[in-house]
Structure formats: structure tokens, C-alpha cells
């Protein structure tokens, strides 16, 4: 007897084995879409752990092997340190012309002032070295090494406040959550040793100023093994690194071996990048139990080194001691050494405040560069000095004969670099006679990051990481290498 029931619809094709009911067709379609989503999810996790997107470690021959970044948190005043503007002294107390300001937004700290008087620098400037670089009297030691430095006076940023500004300079984004520069470098190139982290953070102790949050040296969406490791001053440089009382090195090793086996078993069933990062962190911590006490002890440094870096170098946690420790870390293959020094945010009391910070940093900074050069390390060690933005040429608050302050200024500021493939003894970029706007060769933060990666042999457009369906990079979708400053 012939059936009069309708023939099942064809899902695809016309072959008998592909003739499915409507319910079966929709069911299989749903399962297929779910499988695609699951595959993408697991692929993003497993791929992150086993197959980074970077093509090779380096895309071309590098000039730098390591970087020491001396970050001056708070925004040092370029007008009182590096960018000599005699016109400001001539017009001291006069109102900033509207044509110069050009409608630029001001912060809430000075935006409601009825008067924004120009403030000249109270500090003397002189030319130094064969390069004839203008330097403030506040930096007598740095002035002696100007022929080793490359000044960039035309830096600019969109950030007008500290939180976004520091985050932008450290991660390439104003919003917290992106990987820091050191994490990107570690992800792209890996570590040069097995006993110390590739990315170490040092913070000057007992300093006030804007808070420094851990996301500034965090790995963001990169595997956690790429985050910076903070070394503290005192008897325990890395927290929880030592064994508890009664636990021997042999027992610790046995425990880690068993823990590794459990993690590897977990990873076999759930390929999560955090599991492999956890394994790597445990192994690194075990190696650091021996290496960290050795590298952080300055007892083997001769007296003349302490004299060069200054008396503060004998006090753990000071900027001078951290500069000396940075050199020791660089000698042992640490790739990224980040120093933070706070309290450059001088909205008021600038003459006394900036003098104090220079006294704490100038001598050790110059000693670090000279020390690296003497040891033959400056050629492949990149030293960077700078903050998150600059300061205004006008006074915030009341301008008096002996005191004033400067507000945040993102439109132009100065940083300097040394070694690691940059031209020594040059000044790049220019600002107007008021020190308010850039007139030649602007350099954005993305341009700076692209240039620093280039010095390490990395094409900033090719160092990417896929996260939530998008390939991210340190320079986002911007950035041009500043070839004019490359040696």
C-alpha cells in the first residue's frame, strides 16, 4: 500500500540518506552552531597557551636586548628641566594668549580660573656637551651625559589625568585591562634566563603621589606568566617566595613535582592557558628562591659604585638603590626592568617639589647610564626616562614671587632615551616659543611604543594576540616607527 504521507524535506542535496524531518534538520543545525561556538571558545583558550600569533621571536635584527624604564610618575615639568623657553620669563605674569591655547580643554583644577598667567621657570638653563643641549640647573649630573642621550621634546598624548595617562603610557590604552609593555615584550620574545623573571618592577619606597596599581605591570588578557614581578625593599623582596618553617628544599621540590602532575592532568581535560601559566609560575618561584637573594644583595658592590650612584644607594628601596639593582638585573638577563618614582605632580609648590625629586633621581640616573656604558652594556640596553604627560606653561592657582604650580599638559612633553640603538646626542621634535604646542615632528605614545618594539627587532603590527574574537596589539591600530632617532 502506497503511503500518502508527505515526503520528509531535504536538508541538503537529494540523496536518500540526507532526507531528514524538519525537527531533525533544525536539531542538527543547532548542534552544528553550538559546536562552532565551542570550537572557537576552546580554540581561543588552547591556542593562547600553545600557539601565539606572533610569526617568530623577532622579525629583523634587534638593536636592544633589554630595557630599563625609569618612569617618573606624576608628570615632570619639561619647562623646568629640558625645554628652555626664555619667552616665558619675559612674559611672566601675563595672560596666556587665546591664540596659543587654541581652545584646548583644561582640567577641572585650573579650568575655572579667571586668570591663567604665564609662569617662567625660576631655574637657570645652560647648554652642555658637544651637542649643545639645553639643560636645567636642577639636573647637574644628567647634564654631564647629554651626549649619550636622545631627547624627544615633541611627545603628546590624549590623556589629561593621571590614571588614564599612566595606564596609556604603560599599556597603550587609557582603559585598564590591556597587557603592559613588559608583558607584550615577554610574550613576544620570551625569557633570557630560567632563574629570574623576564619582567621585574621596582618602586621607590616611601613616596607620595598618585597610586600605582598592579594593572600597570599586569598581563591583561595574555597568559599570567607574562605579568611583571614586583621586587620590594627589605628582607623579603618577593612576597611568599621562601619556604615555611620546617619545609626543606627537597620537600618543596617533591611537592611541586606532584602538583605539576595534577596540573598536567587537569590541562589534558581542560586546555586552559591559566593552568600552564600556573605551572610556569610555580617553577619560576622555585628557581627564584636562590636567584633573588643573590641579585638583590648589594654587598658585593665596591665602594666606588655606591659613591657613583650616591649615598642613597646603600638604602634598599630608594631610587638610587633601585637603579643599581636594575643594572644587576640587566647583567643577569632580565629583559624588562621597570622603575617607578612618584611625586612629580606639582600643582603647587613646584620650585621646592621638583628640586626635591631631582635631588633624589638625578645622580643615580646619570650613574646608571655611565655604569652601563663602562661595562659595554649600553649598546644593547635601552634606557628610557619620562612621565605620562607634561606641565602647563601657565600657573595653576595663585602666582606669587617665590611659589607657583603647573597643571597637567598632554599636548607636549619631553622624554629621553639612551643606548639600545637610538642616536646619542640629538634632540628630536620642537615646541613653540611658549612651550605649549608642538611645531615639528610630533611623537604619539603609540609611535613611541612602535619604535621601542622596533629596537627589539619586532614589527609592532605583527605582534598580536587574539582575544574575544579580535587580534590586539600594543599599539592598537596606530603607531609609526620614528626612524629619525634610530642609530
Structural features, described:
This protein is α/β, with parallel strands linked by helices and 487 residues long. The chain has a single domain, classed as Alkaline Phosphatase, subunit A (3-Layer(aba) Sandwich), CATH 3.40.720. The chain is 33% helix and 15% strand. The chain has helices spanning 22-50, 86-90, 98-101, 140-143, 162-171, 181-189, 249-269, 273-296, 303-309, 319-331, 350-374, 445-455, and strands at 66-72, 125-128, 133-136, 149-156, 199-203, 229-231, 336-341, 381-386, 390-395, 406-409, 413-418, 426-428, 430-431, 438-440, 443-444, 465-467, 470-472. Strands 1, 4, 5, 6, 7, 8, 11, 12 and 15 form a 9-stranded mixed beta sheet that branches. A hairpin with a 6-residue loop joins strand 13 (430-431) and strand 14. The chain is globular. Mean pLDDT is 89; it is low at 1-18 and 35-56.
Task: Based on the model shown, name its key terms.
487 residues; alpha/beta; Alkaline Phosphatase, subunit A; nine-stranded mixed beta sheet; 33% helix
